[in-house]
Amino acid sequence: MTTHTTTVTQTEAPPSFFDSATYIPPDAIFALTAEYNTDTSPNKVNLGQGTYRDENGQPWVLPSVQKSREILLTQGLNHEYLPILGLQSFRDNATLMALGPDLYEKVQSRLSTCQALSGTGSLHTAGLLLRSCHSPPPKIYIPSPTWSNHHQVFSSLGFPCESFTYYDSSHKDLNIESYISALKTATPGSVVILHACAHNPTGCDPTKQQWIQLGQIIKERGLFPLFDAAYLGFNSGNVDDDAFAIRYFVGELGLEVAVCLSFAKNMGLYGERTGCLFLVTRSKETAVNAQSTLEMLQRSEVSNPPAYGAKIAATILSSRELKDLWYKDLETMSGRIRAMRVALYNSLNDYGAPGNWDHLVRQSGMFGFLGLEPDVVLKLKEEYHIYMAGNSRVSIAGLNETNVEYVARSIAECLKGY
Ligand SMILES: Cc1ncc(COP(=O)(O)O)c(C=O)c1O
């Protein structure tokens, strides 16, 4: 009779499929918000994340958005899939908003449009398309300093990214010479990321005259302009003014462009991930082909984009009455930010904060780029409970009548070394 014995051999745990994953520190701005949320100080002020706050420091649902939601509810909301390229009325109206009616009509047959996951998703989708059209992928020139995610979005897609300087940190102002020389020496056939307005984080935009100059160099040098347009209308309160560079490049210079639109800031639809990528191409045939490629890329990436925010935005943009209400909302937000910018500037001067603060009122958009040293930024957080990005970028929208003096006094105290 044979007996069977079972032998248990001790083996080492097999390697993980993810052993090569390296630890990546959390995103600095999202980590800062989490830290702020756990701070129990009654004095705490969040100037980190770029989200609009009303005069009471609360998130603001725009009245135009509120109205649009009510209309959608009355009509009856369902939760069906959108088409792969997104909601047609949203894509059309978003593009029309950015180009304005005359230019839109002129280039309509040469447009490719694709709804995307807010500004970030639009940039990512643009990257996917550019990569599918060029092998090896072209170089991407990125202004420095910039939004913290630009390099990550494009380098994670395999693009070689190169920074160029457009900012003069000693004068805290635009460095147009450096901008021009970077473009003049850029490799032809490369892509340049351009902040359409409200340059993050510095708030230093080229003037109209400077945009004309930059556009001409981009054309001569054979570069491809990719506009990151995350703040149209939110910057000045007027979409037409904020879209100047896009419209000039397309309408006057006849350039092909890609434009990445976000409705996070200008409609307050942050979490709804509402965005649109559009291209103005050379010909109708190119537009059809590029759009079909976008459709395939979108299908493999998210299948189809989220519906709610797109429905809200399309309802606003397609109604004269709601659009007028939205224009008022843009003025409310940009006006409050401008007023707080001035209030911070005045208070810093009143409290005798060492240094010159003129740059604060020269800058525009959501952010103020203070130009503080990292140890001051840290001290403001740890001793005064004032949170801002490590590079001393402050979201001006986080200021209000109640906290602006406290912020200015705290900065003054830190700089005086109390
Ligand atoms: C310059 C710039 N681009 C793109 C984005 C993307 O924003 P979202 O993906 O939330 O639309 C932001 C957000 O802060 C930004 O500042």
Automatic annotation (TrEMBL):
<keyword id="KW-0032">Aminotransferase</keyword>
<dbReference type="InterPro" id="IPR000796">
    <property type="entry name" value="Asp_trans"/>
</dbReference>
<protein>
    <submittedName>
        <fullName>Aromatic-amino-acid aminotransferase</fullName>
    </submittedName>
</protein>
<dbReference type="Pfam" id="PF00155">
    <property type="entry name" value="Aminotran_1_2"/>
</dbReference>
<dbReference type="InterPro" id="IPR015422">
    <property type="entry name" value="PyrdxlP-dep_Trfase_small"/>
</dbReference>
<keyword id="KW-0663">Pyridoxal phosphate</keyword>
<dbReference type="GO" id="GO:0005829">
    <property type="term" value="C:cytosol"/>
</dbReference>
<dbReference type="GO" id="GO:0030170">
    <property type="term" value="F:pyridoxal phosphate binding"/>
</dbReference>
<comment type="subunit">
    <text>Homodimer.</text>
</comment>
<dbReference type="InterPro" id="IPR004839">
    <property type="entry name" value="Aminotransferase_I/II_large"/>
</dbReference>
<dbReference type="InterPro" id="IPR015424">
    <property type="entry name" value="PyrdxlP-dep_Trfase"/>
</dbReference>
<feature type="domain" description="Aminotransferase class I/classII large">
    <location>
        <begin position="43"/>
        <end position="411"/>
    </location>
</feature>
<keyword id="KW-0808">Transferase</keyword>
<comment type="similarity">
    <text>Belongs to the class-I pyridoxal-phosphate-dependent aminotransferase family.</text>
</comment>
<dbReference type="InterPro" id="IPR015421">
    <property type="entry name" value="PyrdxlP-dep_Trfase_major"/>
</dbReference>
<dbReference type="GO" id="GO:0004069">
    <property type="term" value="F:L-aspartate:2-oxoglutarate aminotransferase activity"/>
</dbReference>
<dbReference type="GO" id="GO:0006532">
    <property type="term" value="P:aspartate biosynthetic process"/>
</dbReference>
